Amino acid sequence: MRKDKQTIQNTASFADFRASFVQATPRYAVKIPGKTWRTRQFALNDTEIKKHLKGEIYIASLGRWYPEFATFDFDSVPLSVVENVRSDLLLNENNSMLLASESADSYHLYFRPEYNDKPPTLSLLQTILAPYAKSKGVEIYPQKNRAFRLPFGKGQDCLDFEDQNARSWKEKLYWLQKKDDFDLSGVKGHQTFFEFQPIEFNPEAALSSSIDIPELLKSGLQGPSTRDEVQFELVKHLWHQNLLKADCERFIWSWLQNNHNGYSKDLLRSPREVQKHIQHQVAAYYGWMQTGALYPDQPHKSHNGYVCRPDLLEIVKLAEGSLPRMRFIFELVKYMNPRRHRDSVPLHSEKLVQWSSMRTYQGHLRYLESKGILKRGTGYLVGQKAKDLKLTWPYKTDKDAVLFNGRAVDTLEKAVSMLFTPENLRALLRGYVSKQAAQFTTKTLFER
Q: 5-186: which CATH architecture?
């Protein structure tokens, strides 16, 4: 192995596996080796997932609205078919992982999709890759309404030379996490999807809930004329969990039928119209959030990134009192945290400019290089390949992420306000800058 086993096990966890592959609700499928698949019409629990990883059973999970990984499913084909698909799509050992399947001459090819540096929805993934997969006699997962076997169970060994010594599921997951993204925009023959400027709205208002959801789910409607608001709050709650639109619609419709408590005249008189109303609410909210470039909690954390509590203290110290530098390092660490397993990460200059300015971003990079924590690669190609960056950082897992209402915080201001008092931050800054500068920085961060 290219790293010792202890290091690997410390950098891949059950929480990572669950976040990457498992959609726990509303149902899943289970199979005892040698038997047939059976669907369970309730939520998937951690005990069952761990049995899968131990090889005792097989578990199949539903897809998610924003899938972190996608898989080509090859059944009863020679290995040359797999290699042909890889060659066509420029999938290789650096950006994909080939696993054996339960049956002979069957394979699963895993990769992490993106579309122009954004996470794709399941619909976009299928729109781009399903026609190609069909032409090759294979399938692409995840799919709507069909569960797919979780990876790293019994018989799911790594077949690529780079990964073949990985034996435990933690080792396999570690090497999969190191893979580069696969950009769907480069797939030949698909219709180009034009980028639109995200609409601007108040994200906190769009993301927050005005109802106690656990109590609502348990008690049902609590009065007349509440159905519309309750349905919308449930849509938001299920969107946060990254459920597919169809699964969201089915859950709310089923819940309402069993928990209206006699408070919905419309449901009793015109159930079909109520069902259409739910579908409209789901489509509107999911579409609104997509247009606003806001992602459910897990893809938000894995794509936009997160900071951990120890990170923030290190960022403040490393910036040596400079607020612009503090902002830049915050964004860089936030972006690198979910990509911490990779040897290096390509970063386009436009993102670096977004975190600072065209005039200052190079200076920030040189500063971090002078501190010995950043290395820049040399493989830059205009319009084709961004320059790789490697950040030497005391990374933590996302269990230490700074969260607000269960969601990774986006801004330096929010993170600072959650972890420091104004007095503590001012005292820390005074070790690097004047009293007036420390007061200005503290006021700026706490008043926004």
A: Alpha-Beta Complex (3.90)
**C-alpha 302: how far from its chain's center?**
4
Interatomic CA distance for residues 58 and 26, integer angstroms:
18
Q: What is the mean pLDDT of residues 227-238?
A: 96
**69-80: b (≥16 Cβ within 10 Å) or e:** bbbbbbeebeee
Cα–Cα distance for residue pair 440/324, rounded to 1 Å: 13
Report whether 334 contacts 305 (CB < 8 A). Answer: yes
SS3 262: coil
**Cα–Cα distance between 28 and 150 in angstroms, integer?**
11
DSSP H or E stretch at residue 390: strand 387-391
Distances (CA, A) of 335 to 147, 156, 229, 345, 355: 31, 31, 35, 10, 11
Residue with tokens 């509590």: 309
Q: What predicted TM-score, i.e. pTM, was given to this entire model? A: 0.91
pLDDT at 2 over 70: no
| pLDDT higher than threshold 60 for residue 380 | no
Give 4's contacts (C-beta < 8 A, 6+ positions apart).
none
User: What span, in angstroms and rounded, lies between the C-alpha atoms of 303 and 24?
Assistant: 20
Q: Which residues contact 206 (CB under 8 A, 6 or more apart)?
A: 288, 289, 292, 294
325-344 per-position pLDDT tens digit = 999 999 999 999 999 999 99
**Which residues lie below 8 Å from residue 110, measured CB to CB, with a gap of 6+?**
69, 70, 71, 96, 97, 98, 99, 151, 176
Per-residue model confidence as pLDDT tens digits over 99-147: 999 888 999 999 999 999 999 999 999 999 999 999 999 999 999 999 9
**Distances in Å between the alpha carbon of 67 and those of 128, 143, 244, 264, 371?**
14, 10, 10, 35, 37
Q: Among 336, 319, 326, which Cα is nearest to 411's?
A: 326
Looking at residue 119, the DSSP 8-state letter turns out to be P
| C-alpha to C-alpha distances, 373 to 262, 333, 366, nearest whole angstrom | 62, 11, 10
Can you read off the two tokens belonging to residue 135? 């032409």
Q: Is the pLDDT of residue 367 over 50?
A: yes
Domain ranges of the chain: 5-186, 203-297, 305-447
